[in-house]
Amino acid sequence: SQQIVIDSIVVGEARIGRAVMRSTARPGDQIFVTGSLGGAAAGLKLIERGARVSEPRAVATGQNSPQEADGRRQDLADDQASDGAIQALLRRQLSPQPRVGWGMVLGEEQLATAMIDISDGLSSDLHHLCTESGVGATIDSASLPLDENVKHLCGRRALDPLALALHGGEDFELLFTVAPENISRLPKCVDGVPISHIGEITADPRVIRIREKNHEWDLPAQGFQHFSG
Question: Whole-model pTM?
Answer without folding.
Answer: 0.86
